[in-house]
Amino acid sequence: MHSTLAKALIAAATTAIVATGTAKAAPENAGPNKATTQLPFQSQTVARFDLPWAIAVIDADRLIVTTKPGRMYLVDHKGGEPVEVSGLPKVAHSGQNGLLDVALAPDFAESRRIYFTYVEPGYGGSSLVLARATLAEPQGEARLDGLEVIWRQMPKGKGGQPGGIIAFAPDGKSLFLTSGDRMRPQTAQDPDLALGKVLHLTLDGKPAPGNPMSDAGGVRAETWTTGHRNPYGLAFASDGRLWLHEMGPKGGDELNLIEPGVNYGWPEVSYGDNYNGTPIPKPPTRPEFQEPALYWTPVIAPAGLAFYEGDLFPAWKGAALIGGLKTQTLSRVTIKGDAAHEDERFAMEGRIRDVAVAPDGAVWVIEDASPGRLLRLSPR
Length: 380
Known about the structure:
Elements: H1 4-20, E1 28-29, E2 41-49, E3 52-57, E4 62-67, E5 71-76, E6 83-85, E7 99-104, H2 108-111, E8 113-122, E9 125-136, E10 143-152, E11 163-168, E12 174-179, E13 197-202, H3 218-222, E14 223-226, E15 231-236, E16 242-246, E17 253-258, E18 294-296, E19 302-307, E20 320-324, E21 329-336, E22 339-347, E23 352-357, E24 363-367, E25 372-379
Parallel strand pairs: 1-18
Antiparallel strand pairs: 2-25, 3-4, 4-5, 5-6, 7-8, 8-9, 9-10, 11-12, 12-13, 13-14, 15-16, 16-17, 17-18, 19-20, 20-21, 21-22, 23-24, 24-25
């Protein structure tokens, strides 16, 4: 941290952790865990895309899919080719950057509004952007109307690891947004940079009332939690608690329970080490930082997070489903209180980029490949 106020945030975070009783919880290391090939589901290939990135479920039959190069599609799994959505902004597509997450507004059924994130090009580099627009479908076509950028990470700069995952609060009145460290680790501990953070915003992209530093203005007023590296999973469980996973360096992927004002320690602590082999202090050495509920060493490179509440897979009820890029797997994680345990890891045939659950209980996943398949998983 680089300021008196930042130190105050650490103190507040420590108080919050002690109050919730999670500070001393010992995390579980999920790996190594051999993936099973005895799959309880069958996979239906519905479509293929060039580097698909995210899924938003409209209903049991229809989805929105984004692709990293900057395209968006409407998909109907009952038949027909995907319909490309026009009116998308220009994105900075390179490496890990491009068009990222997409999510339906809480009032989508009436407003037809969607929210999405992308990495925006510009002078001095690129930056993460949160935008919204209305999805129009005239005569079998699809387009975005009224596109507006409601939040932009500044200043622009270089690097991947953008984050960009959207999760609406259970009451539908605000949203949470992950912002990665853009491969500049120390930014995650700088309270004046919107990098390495979870932000809590209104539906118009402003700082949400009641944030831990709501009176401070600027990035501080937007910040919900700090000390994150590369968060590609963010979702609310059925009990209303917010969970996040993030990629570690060489080891130390994490699953974290997200609580306001808490500092999760990156890059000061990690269960992984630097890529050059130099060690990073482990979380127990720094009690002011929150321990993960679960970590993976070796890594799985987690991407996509959805909580299962459907009826097609009764044994999965309440579990978190997490894609694995490096391991080419789908993990089922059971959460009890503040503890998490990886119960199963299913061997897939590709790098799983995103996971979603449809109203009929089917599970949808996409592969990080070109072409990458959109798969519908249903019981055998």
